[in-house]
Amino acid sequence: MGKTLFDKIWERHVVKEIDGGPSVLYIDRHFIHEVTSPQAFAGLNARGVNVFRPQQTIATADHNVPTENQHLPIKEELSRLQVEALKKNCAEHLIELYGLGHPFQGIVHVIGPELGITQPGMTIVCGDSHTSTHGAFGSIAFGIGTSEVEMVLASQCLLQSKPKLMRIRIEGQLNKGVVSKDLVLHILSKLSASGATGYAVEFAGSTIRNLSMEARMTICNMSIEMGARCGMIAPDETTFAYIKNRLFAPGQSKWENALAEWKQLFSDDDAVFDKEVVLQAEAMEPMITYGTNPGMGISVTGSIPSLDQIPSNDRTAFEKALKYMGWEAGTAVKGKKVDYVFIGSCTNSRIEDLRQVASFVQGKHKADDVEVWIVPGSKQVEKQAQEEGIDTILEQAGFKLRQPGCSACLGMNEDKIPAGKYCISTSNRNFEGRQGAGARTLLASPLTAAAAAITGVVSDVRDFLN
Fold first, then answer.
1. What is the Cα–Cα distance from 37 to 15, expressed in whole angstroms?
2. What is the CA radius of gyration of the chain?
3. Are 56 and 49 in contact, with CB atoms under 8 Å apart?
């Protein structure tokens, strides 16, 4: 019987199998940031243990950093203390840190791929659930808890049980105005926010093969939102072209050997998955969420489901979500007033996302009563946007390109949405209070977010493209 992509990578990294228990898995790359690492370092220091292989750990400051005036001291005390602790711990343990002011600083799941650190066939972990992003390169990448961060720092290994395997195949061509964020929100609306719990998900099919690396990262990023342990896509020529010549990619003398190895990373034709799902791209439309988990999504032209359309065991949560959002079942979302628009996060803050937004807003101007935050995922994305004139296009449309950070994805920094306000966000989670206490979040693609920024209401971007 053939092997899946996941099997091939997993088997290469198992150090020891424990009878009736988890496996000891070797970790190739460990990313850390300021939120989940302080306790892990405190644990090491309390035991008098050094970081085992510091050269395989990469650190950056992203969650707590401000996205304006980064040259000034951080105002929020907890945020400032966490960033300072990261600097201190990295210096003491000889770990490379891309902190504020460094040309490589940015969101951890943006800088790994753009620097060529993320590569096919690797095992990659971080104390952050959206580590699944790196699976777009054909790697096993997943988030870990703080105690596990300490375990990897101390041993470069992790105790891990092998998940079940699911393949989601998408065939066909996406319609105009439909992008990868819509695709993954569509999948979530079909599978629910728990539909892939216990699985590692491989995304496959002609639709996936025709996507850019940025688009693939968006999809793998949100695999965690359907409950998956990780998401992954087999590497191909698109992957190899993206990696080649990046700073930490294999050099010319090692490139051909690396390429030969990477080309073996695919699921064999006779590989067996525990579950298979097949979807058609032509059936997908621009999506918007209406509730308080990413699986509560509909077409932007659709209506919020009525109570009798919801499974009986989900109705209490459904009614609670609508009460929080201030909406009624059976009503349309299109045309609803928007107060804030956030374009950024590890889901949609790459140069391709900013290009889409700039292309759409060029020659238009934002609605007067909408606050718009456009936040690049890294200093490199910021620099590229400036070199391409994207910042100028945004300014002419009434926006401003801010500085890199996680920003309004989560309420851990200064970019919080006020209570009761509605925000269309390109981030990955719409939980109660995720963007600030009482904030109401609608997840959407960069194009749909840009359309709302211009009109001031939830809009169908296809009305403009046609």
1. 25
2. 21
3. no
Helix (H, G, I), strand (E, B) or coil at 64: coil
Look up residue 438 and give its two tokens.
Answer: 């009482």
Q: What domains can be seen in the chain, in order of their start residue?
A: 5-160 (3.30.499.10), 164-235+262-283 (3.40.1060.10), 288-465 (3.30.499.10)
Count of Cβ atoms closer than 10 Å to residue 280 Cβ: 13
* CA nearest neighbour of 413 among 89, 97, 77, 90: 77
In degrees and rounded to multiples of 5, residue 219 shows phi and psi of -65, -50
Strands 23-26 and 14-17: antiparallel
pLDDT tens for 366-401 read: 999 999 999 999 999 999 999 999 999 999 999 999
If phi > 0 it is left, if psi is from -120 to 50 it is alpha, else beta; for residue 191 that is alpha
Q: What is the DSSP letter of 229?
A: S
Give the pLDDT mean for 262-271. 98
- The answer to pTM > 0.85 is yes
- Side by side, the strands of the sheet bearing 164-171 are 230-232, 199-204, 164-171, 275-280
Residue 273 CB partners (closer than 8 Å, separation 6+): 4, 165, 166, 167, 202
